[in-house]
Specification:
One of its GO terms (molecular function) is ATP hydrolysis activity. The chain is α/β, with parallel strands linked by helices and 257 residues long. It has eight helices and nine strands. 37% of the residues lie in helices and 25% in strands. The protein binds adenosine-5'-triphosphate (ATP).
Length: 257
């Protein structure tokens, strides 16, 4: 689904070049849930943005569904969810979710049907007529996920979508996200700073290290695929993966060229 080979991105800044990504080799299969974890500045967001063709790599190769990231973007292959829900306050929830469909020129009937479908997918049936400020932070973030799902992209890219939420809401959204992933079969790329979140959600965990931003380790999760109960986090298998991620982060931090 997504293949990076020797991917590099160097930003030219007034203070000299910043090697945001270097030697990134990664294969993401269709239907995988891949988390990116690493210290601030290791290039997690930059890599997600390259996949979505929001940044142009300065070296190496990147293919998405067998085409360039730009071509995949034009074919509406991505939905993108940001840390802040980013809903327009003057639009209702339904009108926010509908916005990409309006821009893409979907018929009015199709817009209404899709908005209804995705709001139900994120458990927000009946909230379409509310305004963002009438919803809790967790519900707003669910609405922003619905917006990213509205045009049925194969790939969902999520950049710390739950980072600003309290732990209980975050647990609930993590659980719901896994169910949604199981129902839709989408390929998900997910940036997080939380080890438990990465281990709970992922089929594959990509541990990154900074300066230059690169992949330190890719961990294939032994946990069962699909919806997982939250108490899996107390299991031995879970704790072992979490330990491996933590060790990787520690070692990767000392990994300098
Ligand atoms: N447009 C830009 N111009 C110059 N430098 C940039 C730009 N975007 C990112 N960088 C730099 O590239 C590096 C990687 O940034 P990136 O935002 O991808 O890291 P991150 O791992 O997502 O960090 P965080 O966890 O803090 O969000 C950082 O050193 C950052 O300052």
């Amino acid at each position: 689904m997504i293949q990076a080979k020797g991917l590099e991105l160097t930003f030219q800044t007034n203070d000299g070049p910043v090697h945001a990504l270097k030697d990134i080799d990664l294969d993401i299969e269709a239907g995988e849930f891949v988390s990116f974890i690493g210290p601030s500045g290791c290039g997690k967001t930059t890599f997600l943005r390259c996949i979505a063709a929001l940044e142009t790599p300065t070296g190496g190769a990147l293919s998405v569904k067998g085409m360039s990231a730009e071509a995949a973007r034009q074919k509406r292959s991505y939905g993108y969810v940001f840390q802040a829900a980013g809903l327009y306050p003057w639009r209702t929830i339904a009108a926010n979710v509908r916005l990409p469909l309006e821009i893409m020129g979907y018929s009015r009937a199709e817009q209404v049907k899709r908005v209804e479908d995705v709001l139900s997918l994120v458990d927000l049936e009946g909230f379409g007529k509310k305004f963002p400020w009438q919803l809790s932070g967790g519900m707003q973030q669910r609405a922003s996920i619905a917006r990213a799902l509205a045009f049925d992209a194969d790939i969902l890219l999520m950049d710390e979508p739950f980072g600003a939420l309290d732990e209980i809401v975050r647990d609930k959204l993590n659980e719901e996200l896994l169910k949604l992933w199981e129902r839709t079969g989408k390929t998900i790329g997910f940036v997080t700073h939380s080890i438990p979140e990465a281990v709970y959600l992922s089929t594959k965990i990509v541990v990154m290290s900074p300066r230059p931003g690169r992949i330190y380790e890719v961990i294939d999760s032994p946990l069962p695929r699909g919806a997982r109960p939250l108490d899996i986090r107390d299991s031995e298998a879970f704790l072992q993966v979490a330990h491996r991620v933590r060790e990787g982060l520690r070692a990767g931090h000392a990994y300098e060229d």
